[in-house]
Amino acid sequence: MKALLTFCTVCMLAFVAGAQAAAVRSVEPNYEKVKNSRWRCRSCPYELGQGSRFDLSATLLQTDDVDARFGRDNGLTDDDSTFDASATYFRRDAETGRVIGLIGRDLGLDSGRLDLSLVRPNRFRASVSWSEIPRNEWLNARTAMTGTTNLRFPTNWTSAPNTQGMTQLVPGSRPTKIGTERRKAEATLAYRFGGNWTVEAGYARETKEGRALSSGDFLYQTTGLLTPIDHTTETLSAALQYTSGRWSAGLHMRESEFENANRSLTWQNPYTEGTGPGEGRKALAPDNEASEWGLTLRVSPFPGSVLRAHGRWGELRQNDQFLPPSVNPAVAAPPMPLPPGLDGTVDTSAANLQWVIPLGRHVALRLTSLDRERDNNTRSLPLTPVLGDRFPSLALQSRHYSYKRDRTAAAATFRLSSKTRLEIGVAEDERRRTLLEVESNTEDQQWAMLRVRLPRALRLSLRYQENDRDASGFRNITSNNPLTRRYFMTAREQTSWKASLSAPLGPAIHTGFSVDRRHSDYPASVLGVQSETDDNWSTDLTWQIAKHIHLSAHRSKHRVRSRTAGSSTAGNADWQGGTEDVVRTSTAELSINEFWRGASLSVTFDHSDGSGRYDTEFNSLLSVFPELVSKHRAMDLRLSVPFGEGYLASLRHYTERYESADWQLDGVAVNTLPGMITFGLLSPNYDARLVAITITRKL
Amino acid sequence: MRSIEGQRPQRRTALSLVLALLAFIVAPPSMAADATAVLTQKLLDGNYSRRGADICLRCHDDTFPFPTAMVFHTVHGQPTHPEAPFAPPADSTPPAGLQCEACHGPIDEHGKQILADDETRQEMLAYGSRGNVETSLQNGMCLNCHEHYRRLHWEGSAHETAGLACADCHQIHAFVDKVRRIGEQVDRCTGCHTDVAADMLKRLAHPLRDSQLICVNCHEPHGDVGDHLTKHATVNDTCYTCHAEKRGPMLFEHPPASEDCTICHEPHGSNQPALLARRPPQLCQGCHSSAGHRSLPQLTDQLPAGTSVSQFLVGKGCLNCHAEVHGSNHPSGDRLRR
Q1: Given an 8 Å threshold on Cβ–Cβ distance, is A10 in contact with B84?
Q2: How far is CA B49 from CA A38, B102, B119, B145, in A?
Q3: ipTM of the predicted structure?
Q4: How many inter-chain contacts (A to B, CB under 8 Å) are there?
Q5: What is the CA radius of gyration of chain B?
Q6: On the CB side of B211, how many CA atoms lie within 13 Å of its CA?
Q7: Is the dihedral of CA B80, B83, B86, B92 positive or negative?
Q8: Is A453 in CB contact (< 8 Å) with chain B?
Q9: Nearest-CA neighbor of A74 among A129, A131, A115, A116?
């Protein structure tokens, strides 16, 4: 209420003060005097006939000392020579305006992409695309297990109460590659008819295959597991839209189906037999379906005013067959048989209402109402979980959470002059949840933003925002320490500000500087997160040194800090923990174009230094963890030289050095932890090189 | 609503007022006489040329500092497109068919062949970095034709209220509009979003650097119904596009995972594994009591160099056992371990 009062006061003050302005809302140009019936444009260099371009590239790549991280997204994970090809074809028919485009990128790599499109402007657009996205996580994860969905140790496996006694663990472990490969095929069609109507349809099928890291436990003894990934997601979408001068409407639907080829993962218990189950089994992601319908309406009741409404209703469904509570035959069946599947349904909805209203020539008001709901209608089931496939625990009811968010906002933009705008706004953001310790949060938000576009391309922007989040009374309904407040739903006071300046230093030099800070306090959290601070600054420079020489550079620092209080005894706070992540990034690019017979050269440097500091203070004893380190250095040199008729030779030399240290990985071999078999992962350290020679033929 | 959980500090509501006053102070003098007013009036007067682009191309040829011929290799310069500026006048309705003047406004006195000594040439509407009028006027000219499809949500969107002009991102007089090209879009967007440019180089990041993923896979830059200009109504709906295995519903859910992925994850890049905001166990201890889980190094020096390494602390921390943090459909998955 107080925020709203402030908002209204400031609005009135500015309005009464009569901010001088040449307000420009959408101008309706006057076409009444147009006499263009005789315009011919004889000097216009129109395309004639069928103009086409065809570029074909063949590349030979050589990579050395690669690492999973180096080839994480491009698939280059082997020290080897690789052949790659790219092609671009474009043809426009000047008579019909029809355009055919074909773009193929990196067709010889695991990160290839192919797009084919056929367009007739103002009539239709059809496109088909196929792409691969690799995700290489590790090349050297060590495991002694074999199998895909039923993981087994070697036949000579020696069970033991802890990893130190497992004599076959170290010699039996071999390196294995962890990662996934996505393949996505898409087809879309858009057709315009009757001048105002457009219909769109699309289909996408995405597969993801590979292995991911996971783990499975037998109470306090756990094992790193390779989880098979064999996912398929199919999505069908359609939309119908109508657009006229004053109003537009659209209807859309989307159906999506997810399938997992594997339902469960079973693994052999490597720990001492006799006291525990012989194996464990966990559920993998269940098949699920999602449907969505949406309606959008946009009306312009009077010039400059826009009223927009959007509603979306959806449903998530899942009824995958349940696994038995335990794979251990020694555990008695639960007293109450389970239904075959969850038969879970979640109704989702989202509604937006926004009204942009010009108030006179100086002020524009923006009113927004937003509603989001995830209503979980899944029935609660009585269950008797089996702990670690060993013994049944206490009976319980499954809990299915629902969530609702309502946000109402009002913002006013004042045109103080044609170059200066001030925006102030207030909002109330309410979130309600079922079955959780805090039933509702209400956050009052208020902000002010000033933007100035001064002469000579000088731009200044200042923004300040305050958010105060209240929480309803705490309900002690879980086994968590009741002094703990979960940071996403407890009271929070947050302030944030941002300032940015963009200015030319001369006719060919432009620079920008930006700094921002966000700080959050959690005053009600005796235990849990106490505070978070996010600082960021960046500066950039672009310099046109000469007509064909261009330099750009960027430097930034991002720091995130947090403080957390905890209890080691389920009582009051007896320890404090702190984290501080700092990442400094510098990039620079120098490009020289057409310096010799049309040759071009570019050199790019990337530096990114990350550090993570962690400490805990317990009984006045401070312990600082080893620093988390990541140092990324890359230099990319590209030289292109045209030769012959329509040929281009390109050379690329790319080097990337990466050094890292991670106390959670380094020094933890497969048998370091008594109660856990790890993958013996090591932080990546490499000095990789890529040399590529490309010949491009332009036809 | 008063805080039940704690005392709220005194609000600094006066700041809004201070900023408002500051705006008055720093605001330059009235710009009523600037190009915006002049060019707005030109649009309202509507004094278009008699010969169209033939007049413009007399001066704006290949020797001009800003060559214009490339527009004839784009959709704007196609005479076959009935709604394009260069559509045949007989088959089109203004602004289609108005050639250069469709976007740059009526020529009026700009085309005067002879200027007096102290006379400057009347301005025409210019765009982007050469822009000489307010962005709302620039954008209004574009929206005269393009206010359909994905531009329905432009007014009031984050980019519109930030004063962005269409030509700040799009190149019209170019064979390829770089922001629409897969290999170049990320560079274009991170020119302003420098924090995302830095995120891309962090220890973990979505594959933006090599353009396997591009900005419009998740965002709708012309404004949409979602938060943060996401393509779908919620952040989670957007994430589920690729991570459908996490959308559920599950027998046992982890409430923050169902509510908002960004409670735990940083979507563009992070110093931590799995794009986490902090790493386990610290991240988890922000909500969950650590009692019974010896994860303090002071207790027995539980780091690898120590004598009693804790599985609650190293490796994947809490996830060494509670691996199914996005939810479990196993009847014994109540603690997200199965």
Answers
A1: no
A2: 11, 11, 20, 21
A3: 0.93
A4: 558
A5: 29
A6: 16
A7: positive
A8: yes
A9: A131
pLDDT tens column, B254-270:
999 999 999 999 999 99
**End-to-end CA separation in angstroms for chain A:** 68
Please check the confidence at residue A472 and state whether its pLDDT lies above 50: yes
Record the tokens describing residue A623, joined without a space.
């312990």
pLDDT at A13: 54
Residue A133 reports pLDDT greater than 80: yes
pLDDT digits (tens, 9 = 90+) for B1-18: 333 443 344 445 555 555
Inter-chain touch B249–A316, beta carbons under 8 Å = yes
Question: What is the per-residue pLDDT for A314?
Answer: 96
CB contact under 8 A, A568 and B314: no
A547, with CB counted inside 10 A (0-12, 13-18, 19+), is: exposed
User: Per residue in A322-370, pLDDT tens?
Assistant: 999 999 988 877 677 889 999 999 999 999 999 988 887 788 899 999 9
Quick one: tokens of A658?
């990466």
Could you report the per-residue pLDDT of B134-192, keeping only the tens digit for each? 888 899 899 888 876 667 788 888 898 888 899 999 999 888 888 988 889 999 999 88
Token readout for A72 is: 């994480």
DSSP A301: S
Pair A94, A46: CB distance under 8 Å? yes
